[in-house]
Amino acid sequence: MSHAGAVSRHVEVALHALDREIPDGDLRVLVAGVENGGALEVWRSLGADVLGLDRDPRCAGLGLPVETCDVTDEGSVRGALIGREFDLVVDQTREASPWLWPFLRAGGRMLLEDLPEARVGDLASAVAQDRDTWLPQEEIMRVTLYPRVTVVEKRNPRVIPYLDIAVGNFADVVGEAELRDRGVRFVVA
Questions:
Q1: Among 52-61, 101-110, 123-132, which is the least confidently predicted range?
Q2: Strand, helix or coil for residue 79
Q3: pTM
Q4: Structural domains of the chain, count
Q5: Is-contact 1 36, C-beta < 8 A?
Q6: Residue 7 domain-assigned?
């Protein structure tokens, strides 16, 4: 809130989401949508290793680490980010590009500002219903919704889906046989 450099524009709740969602420590941050470069300056002042992506070639002349790239074009993103991995991807473009996701490390988070409501709804319902969406559902650990901000945590891809498991010694109401018929696996400790 007290940054004196280049203008950095964010939805205020994004600052609260970042406080809650982003762990302390060294971070590799990708900012999609550089505008004036203020967000990159803020991240650098916090000690982050930051890179910006923007389709506007003027951003490359800001004296900041910026790659000129169209985030809606898979080839452009791959060319700009090959060999890189990030702990945090901040997408300020409102494009919600799926092409940024492969460069987010497992356990990392993607923060999407002002994502169109239809995209938020599709993402949240796909995760709840265990179906594919514009991000690979099997790699999504969770989706957290804030007003005008969506945070997606990436998990390691699973080879098999999550299982229904049961633990305990007594099944007096719904019996063990019925649970097994429903596909529940019992774990013996």
A1: 123-132
A2: helix
A3: 0.80
A4: 2
A5: no
A6: no
